[in-house]
Automatic annotation (TrEMBL):
Official protein name in the record: LysE family transporter
PANTHER family tied to this protein: ARGININE EXPORTER PROTEIN ARGO, HOMOSERINE_HOMOSERINE LACTONE EFFLUX PROTEIN
Compartments reported by the entry: Cell membrane
GO molecular function, one term: homoserine transmembrane transporter activity
Main location as per UniProt: membrane
Entry's Gene Ontology cellular component terms: plasma membrane
This protein's record includes keyword Nucleus: no
Length: 204
């Protein structure tokens, strides 16, 4: 593992994306615990992409236009569904006490997982990203890629946890002002909708 890998990973993780938006939304609406659950779910959603890259499935995805398009439009539909849910539910950003029941916690984690699973760009990213930090003809290339993938996931959770903490710190100020709740809700919905459209229009 190199310093270049850590810096590059942090830059990529810090860039606002669907996972960041989802974590911020849950941090504001449900407090620190909900934000951390969202961060955990988004981090788990990276696992299939890392395994796909290690197994070479990302190369197949890259070569198959049909496979890429199918996964991409599933992702688009899911992001637009979340955006619509935020607009539709008047209390989407008012989940009540920070200690959410177990079933709600599982739902938060599940949505976080699906948010990242249905993003084919992640598979292509890891396909191009991880091999750059593996020595040519390394006998333990698979183990090294899994290790780097694990480090990337750990950094992802750490950064997202910080986002969740910052969002939770704003919870009281946001939820005490009804107009801010409405506009925050609409802003998150718009951001997710725009990201969904960008994914739909993105080139491979």
């Amino acid at each position: 593992m190199t310093l270049e890998f850590l810096i590059t990973s942090l830059v990529v993780i810090l860039l606002p994306g669907t996972g960041v938006i989802y974590t911020l939304a849950l941090g504001i609406s449900g407090g620190l615990r909900a934000g951390l659950l969202a961060a955990f779910g988004c981090t788990l959603g990276i696992v299939p992409h890392i395994l796909a890259s290690v197994a070479g499935l990302a190369a197949v995805l890259h070569a198959s236009a049909l496979a890429f398009e199918v996964l991409r439009y599933i992702g688009v539909a899911y992001l637009l569904f979340i955006a619509w849910s935020l607009l539709k539910e008047s209390n989407a950003l008012d989940l009540g006490p920070e200690q959410a029941p177990a079933e709600k916690a599982l739902r938060i984690v599940r949505k976080g997982i699906f948010t990242n699973i249905f993003n084919p760009k992640l598979s292509l990213f890891f396909l191009a990203f991880l091999p750059q930090f593996i020595p040519a003809n390394a006998p333990d290339a698979t183990a090294r890629m899994l290790l780097l993938g694990g480090v990337f996931m750990a950094l992802t959770f750490l950064v997202f946890a910080i986002y969740a903490g910052l969002a939770a710190g704003l919870r009281r100020q946001v939820l005490s002002r009804p107009k801010i709740i409405v506009w925050t809700q609409r802003s998150f919905a718009a951001a997710l909708g725009v990201m969904g459209l960008r994914l739909a229009l993105a080139d491979r």
